[in-house]
Design a protein that fits this description.
The chain has 13 helices and no strands. By secondary structure, it is mainly α. The chain folds into two domains: 101 residues, Helix Hairpins (Orthogonal Bundle), CATH 1.10.287.4070; 114 residues, Nop domain (Serum Albumin, Chain A, Domain 1), CATH 1.10.246.90. Helix 2 packs antiparallel against helix 5.
Length: 240
């Protein structure tokens, strides 16, 4: 009887393990990766702001010349102890403290880069049409907003078009402000490169293609993203 109980328990545990394992989807991997990359980016910008303020005491001219935060972090790490004519002279401990913050910031930059590379590989394997058509980060944000590739494939293109514009939509509904025409996809080259009057039309066309791409990926259809992207570029990025 005891042996039978142990066997039943063993099978039950195995069943639970298999259910837990199968419940972890690529959607969750993508959602966690893009959310982590975004949070790290915010931290990098916060540290870079502090780093700029600190470094400007030593070299105000150089701080103003370098606009890109990631490039600025590299400059700080590579800088020597010689001040400019306008800056203060930093002692050894001052330099060490400044570069310690820069080193932490650089580590975050490298982590973000790794996460984006991981995200690109994962999405190319899981939803290549969406990845190529929408772009890695925008595609990942759309999956996050929809909660899964399956639900993204089920949504109307008009809903996809406004993902990321929830605040503007709420203002429109509450106060009658101008309704938004696009959310995350505003950063897509097809929309960004369209004429000012054509951005809304470009956003609608892109959302239609994204909806199709999501369905192709979810139902394991053929790869058409390169053709869809070329069609969009020819239509909206050549003054047509």
């Amino acid at each position: 009887m005891n042996n039978e109980f142990q066997e039943i328990r063993k099978k039950a545990l195995q069943s639970v393990k298999e259910k837990v394992r199968s419940s972890v989807s690529k959607d969750q991997m993508i959602i966690n990766a893009i959310s982590s990359a975004e949070e790290i980016e915010k931290t990098i910008n916060s540290y870079a702001s502090r780093l700029r303020e600190w470094f400007s005491l030593k070299n105000p001219e150089l701080e103003r010349k370098i606009e890109d935060n990631e490039e600025f972090i590299k400059i700080v790490l590579a800088s020597d102890k010689e001040p400019t004519k306008m800056g203060a002279e930093f002692g050894r401990e001052d330099e060490q403290a400044l570069k310690a913050l820069a080193a932490i910031s650089q580590g975050l930059v490298e982590t973000k880069t790794f996460l984006l590379l991981y995200l690109e590989k994962t999405m190319n394997d899981y939803c290549r049409n969406l990845c190529v058509l929408a772009g890695v980060t925008t595609g990942a944000k759309l999956i996050r907003e929809a909660k899964s590739l399956k639900r993204l494939a089920e949504l109307q293109s008009g809903t996809i078009q406004l993902f990321g514009a929830e605040k503007a939509l709420f203002r429109h509904l509450k106060s009658g402000a101008k309704p938004p025409k696009y959310g995350f996809i505003i950063s897509h080259p097809v929309v960004a490169g369209a004429s000012q009057n054509g951005k809304g039309k470009a956003a609608r066309a892109l959302a239609d293609k994204i909806s199709l791409a999501a369905r192709l990926d979810y139902f394991k259809g053929e790869f058409l993203a390169d053709k869809m992207l070329l069609d969009l570029q020819n239509k909206f990025n050549k003054g047509v």
